[in-house]
Design goal:
Chain lengths: 428, 153
């Protein structure tokens, strides 16, 4: 006989917790933690200092830079250390705007960017810049030709993310980069979710700037990167000393720079194998969830998506309550529901791919990592259907649907690629 | 953001969840577009609420406040139930995070929506009682405008 909701909830206490939120952050690899512990103790010098401790720190920093550059197949002078992906995005966008505002005040981006990009754009709009937000299709893909059509004589920057943090959609960056290069417009990409998961070679992608973050690839929080192609001129964001070739002030975080180099090398060494393994886990998860839970849709593209990302909408229920039960059952996941944010609006990404708000509220993001296993997926495929059923039993929308007075927006058999035309008819 | 143990308890083990087949009155408030909708069924005998059941689409605090509200009003006269405020519901749950206060407004509204149609149908609505239904006129988010994030976008 199948276990009941209560039995599964009780049993979960005896099981190690299952971390399914690798897009939020990752546990640093043991080797990375060792590197950090060693360097904090043994190499605390300031790279700018004129004595042996300083020289040693400067050597370590430049070695880390060279190793990272080798991983990306670029020159070490093109790698800049920052504090996080958000800083890199802010710097690339605001730095470009400041340096090129005499040439033009038009910037192009998409509606599904990370808030680090969108809120930087909003700041620039308040300063008089004109920003075009390009729409993506219902699977989250930006058609490259839309970029060409949006280009103007006064366009100074195009910024399109490599892979989306919520729905995992991978953009045709190479094609978009080629259009920008042909037009002589700078092209920035937020590569935070992509690095370590899919191949990222800035030269092949025709990118001028790419932002990266350490803690998404098993390095600590507090370190990020900006790749900036040689010859690309942008203004400083952080004023201070002469660090990072006078382009980013602040004492360098040598320890974390080395940790990031180590984590990146390890991720790339594993990438082919891990990508295959996680893609297989992901697809088993996606098909298993849609098979077992009626009225469920996959959000994002079925194949053009990060190997570790699955994002679902479950009709008639709300995402935060799914997360609360999952947490109780031992899982860490995330949702695009408004209730998990500080605002009352559901995720801008889910709205941008055309989900009605009532469907976007019922979303769940599961992101896998190097520590995810088949057994964890097995557990999840038992527990999630029980949780969704429990919440549907509580939902007045579900009883209305059962009574035949409310239509269903997602068919019972579910869908991997569904475009929803409208909501239930309530207005906001 | 962290919920109190009481909120989690009422979310995980909701009291009076379901529907009353022969309900005297019921009220539905909220909007799925905003992410929460609450339906409250009441059984009233001799002006006393002898049973209350809810169904809620919404977050943890929406479900917990529905559950708590039913517990608080069962056994009360309809007039006494009108005095159960959203703040009282929130306090009974050992508080709610500020961004979640609007969920307690929804619970108060659901009870009042059901009682309003009861009073009107039974010809019991008086000017005195009408005043108690003012909360139904507002968006459940308004009262906590600065907290709930309505003003963000």
């Amino acid at each position: 006989m199948n276990s009941t909701f209560e039995e599964r909830m009780r049993e979960s206490v005896n099981r190690p917790r299952i971390y399914f939120d690798h897009a939020a952050t990752t546990l640093p690899r043991p080797e990375v933690i060792d590197t950090v512990a060693t360097l904090l103790k043994e190499s605390y010098g300031n790279p700018s200092s004129f004595y042996q401790e300083g020289h040693r720190a400067a050597e370590l920093l430049e070695d880390a830079r060279a190793r990272i550059a080798a991983c990306l197949d670029v020159h070490p002078e093109e790698i800049f250390f920052t504090s996080c992906g958000t800083e890199s995005d802010n710097w690339a966008i605001k730095g470009t705007a400041d340096a090129h505002r005499r040439r033009g005040r038009h910037i192009i981006t998409t509606t599904i960017e990370h808030h680090a990009v969108l809120h930087s754009m909003e700041t620039l709009e308040r300063e008089g810049f004109d920003v075009t937000y390009l729409d993506v299709d219902h699977r989250g893909i930006l058609e490259p030709e839309k970029v060409r059509e949006a280009l103007r004589d006064d366009t100074i920057l195009v910024s399109v993310m490599m892979a989306n943090n919520e729905i995992g959609t991978i953009q045709p960056i190479k094609e978009i980069g080629a259009i920008c290069r042909e037009a002589g417009v700078l092209f920035h990409s937020d590569g935070v979710q992509a690095l370590g998961a899919i191949p990222v070679y800035p030269n092949e992608l025709n990118a001028d700037m790419i932002s990266f973050s350490g803690h998404k690839l098993y390095a600590p929080k507090g370190i990020g990167l900006l790749y900036k192609r040689k010859g690309v001129r942008i203004d400083r964001l952080i004023d201070g000393g002469a660090q990072e070739k006078r382009q980013r002030g602040g004492t360098e975080n040598v320890t974390y720079a080395v940790a990031l180099a180590k984590a990146l090398e390890m991720s790339l060494a594993d990438m082919e194998k891990e990508s295959k393994r996680q893609t297989a886990l992901r697809d088993r998860l996606i098909h298993g969830v849609i098979e077992r839970i009626p009225h469920t849709k996959l959000n994002g593209h079925a194949t053009e998506r990060l190997p570790n990302n699955a994002n679902f909408s479950f009709e008639f229920i709300e995402g935060e309550s799914i997360l609360l039960f999952l947490d109780k059952f031992g899982y860490a996941c995330s949702s695009g529901s408004a209730c998990t944010s500080a605002s009352l609006d559901p995720s801008h990404v889910l709205l941008a791919i055309g989900l009605p708000a009532e469907i976007a509220h019922g979303s769940l993001r599961v992101t896998l990592g190097i520590d995810s296993t088949d057994e964890q997926i097995n557990h999840f495929l038992i527990d999630l259907p029980l949780i969704v059923e429990r919440l549907r039993d509580m939902s007045p929308l579900y009883s209305d649907y059962k009574r035949g007075v409310l239509p269903s927006l997602i068919p019972e058999e579910g869908s991997l690629d569904l475009e929803i035309a409208g909501g239930y008819g309530w207005s906001s | 953001m962290q919920y109190s143990d009481k909120v989690l308890d009422h979310f995980m083990n909701p009291r009076n969840m379901g529907e009353i087949e022969d309900a005297t009155t019921s009220g539905t408030v909220g909007n799925p577009v905003c992410g929460d909708i609450m339906k409250m069924d009441l059984k009233i005998v001799d002006n006393i609420i002898v049973d209350a059941k809810f169904k809620t689409f919404g977050c943890g605090s929406a479900i917990a406040t529905s559950s708590m509200a039913t517990e608080m009003i069962i056994g009360l006269t309809t007039d006494e139930a009108l005095d159960v405020t959203n703040k009282a519901v929130a306090e009974a749950l050992d508080g709610l995070p500020p961004v979640k206060m609007h969920c307690s407004v929804l619970a108060e509204q659901a009870v009042k929506k059901a009682l309003e149609s009861y009073y009107i149908r039974e010809g019991l609505m008086t000017p005195e009682r009408t005043k108690k239904f003012a909360i139904l006129g507002q968006c459940e988010h308004e009262e906590n405008y600065e907290h709930c994030g309505c003003s963000d976008e």
